[in-house]
Amino acid sequence: MENLLELRNEIDAIDKEIVGLFQKRMKISSEVAEYKISTGKKVFDRAREEEKIRAVTELADNDFNRHGIEELFQQIMSMSRKLQYQLLAQNGVVGRLPFIAVEEIEKSRVRVVFQGVEGAYSEAAMKAFFQDDITSFHVEHWRDAMEAIAEGSADFAVLPIENSTAGSVSDMYDLLMEFENYIVGEQVIRCQHNLLGLPDAELSDIKTVYSHSQALSQCKEYLGTHRDWKQIPMVNTAMAAKKVKEDGDKTQAAIASAYAGEKFGLKVLADKIYDNEANSTRFIIVTNQRIFRWDAKKISISFEVPHTSGSLYNILSHFIYNNLNMTKIESRPIPGRNWEYRFFIDFEGNLNDGGVKNALRGIREEANNMRILGNY
Ligand SMILES: O=C(O)C(=O)C[C@]1(C(=O)O)C=C[C@@H](O)C=C1
């Protein structure tokens, strides 16, 4: 039996050849890029890659190696594409992104819509993001706010996208797909929920509690100590407070902010009833224009990938390769296509950065229906 040292020497010699061949192949790939630059042909050629995988896997002696060869060549061609995107960018063949950089997002004398009623956390987010001289109005549903933006009856909408305890607001992702609106800002608001009742109500009177489903889940521990209370979800926490006031029934309570309590003349029956002290909601500021602040730091995109193994992995490699830090990933089912998903990714960067342009170009070519949802 050969000793380990000899075997390692053999492996070293083979690896040297592999490196040499890899470099030789990449050099040819860069010549292909030159051809593509002069002809305007796309970098990614799915048919050619499929054919290549078929041909090289046929050369393998057994199933185990066949699988390995397939993975190896997928990675080699992925590297080859990345080199080509880079060369295209260096030669100025990077399509201009249809977004315009602005000095500032207008925060004064604009029309802003939020969902819910006065006293909603969305109103608090609006007040924190915009100046006092704005004109604002509220609508009943998130969709109404998206529509108001799309048709131009408001300049901006303030909508919840994620809560630190309850997670993403999945409906918002679907609405971002449905409408051609763009995220231009975000505002995080601490959600300090209270149990609110009529001024003459006592804790012992309560039989039913109304709130938004997310707020109910954010107060799960507290509600667990009152298992006999019926929990009824409402479209918004402030709507719940309004209902308790309007019904005038001492057995009803709402979970909402102290601000909503003041607005609707309700009494705080229990304060700070949330499970998590840092409980916060992130709101997005949405508009119908493709604009971004010149110093924006976060990008949101969405895309679909083919229903094949490794397809998401391949798309994510564009972030790694361009040294971009991904901060969030979310998936939503694609309507009408069972068990297929659309991915939503947030990552750090600005649409004017070279690495960002490179990654977006690769993702646009290799994934389906890539959309830039905003840079903020
Ligand atoms: O054949 C091409 O068009 C190439 O650019 C080369 C190559 C490869 O590395 O094999 C790279 C990217 C394409 O998607 C297909 C194949």
What is the CATH architecture assignment of the largest domain? 3-Layer(aba) Sandwich
> What ligand species are in this complex?
prephenic acid
In terms of DSSP E residues, the strand content is 25-35%
Helix content: 40-55%
Shape: elongated
Pathway: Amino-acid biosynthesis; L-phenylalanine biosynthesis; phenylpyruvate from prephenate: step 1/1; Metabolic intermediate biosynthesis; prephenate biosynthesis; prephenate from chorismate: step 1/1
EC number: 4.2.1.51
Catalytic activity: prephenate + H(+) = 3-phenylpyruvate + CO2 + H2O; chorismate = prephenate
Keywords: Amino-acid biosynthesis, Aromatic amino acid biosynthesis, Cytoplasm, Isomerase, Lyase, Multifunctional enzyme, Phenylalanine biosynthesis
Features:
single chain; 376 residues; Chorismate Mutase Domain, subunit A; D-Maltodextrin-Binding Protein, domain 2; 4 domains; 42% helix; binds prephenic acid
Walkthrough of the structure:
With 376 residues, the protein is an alpha/beta fold. It folds into 4 domains: 1-93, Chorismate Mutase Domain, subunit A, CATH 1.20.59.10; 100-191 and 280-293, 3-Layer(aba) Sandwich (D-Maltodextrin-Binding Protein, domain 2), CATH 3.40.190; 194-270, Periplasmic binding protein-like II (D-Maltodextrin-Binding Protein, domain 2), CATH 3.40.190; 295-376, ACT domain (Alpha-Beta Plaits, 2-Layer Sandwich). 42% of the residues lie in helices and 27% in strands. Strands 2, 3, 4, 5, 6 and 12 form a 6-stranded mixed sheet that branches. Strands 9-8-10-7-11 form a 5-stranded mixed sheet. Strands 15-16-14-17 form a 4-stranded antiparallel sheet, with helices on both faces. A hairpin with a 2-residue loop joins strand 15 (326-334) and strand 16 (337-348). Helix 1 (4-39) crosses helix 3 (63-90), helix 2 runs antiparallel to helix 3 and helix 11 (311-321) runs antiparallel to helix 12 (354-366). The longest helix is centred in the first third of the chain and has 36 residues, at 4-39. It is elongated, with a radius of gyration of 27 Å. It starts with a helix and ends with a strand. The mean pLDDT is 95. Bound molecules: prephenic acid. The site of prephenic acid (PRE) has 11 residues, from helix 1, helix 2 and helix 3. Prephenic acid (PRE) binds at residues 29, 32, 44-45, 48-49, 52, 77, 80-81, 84.
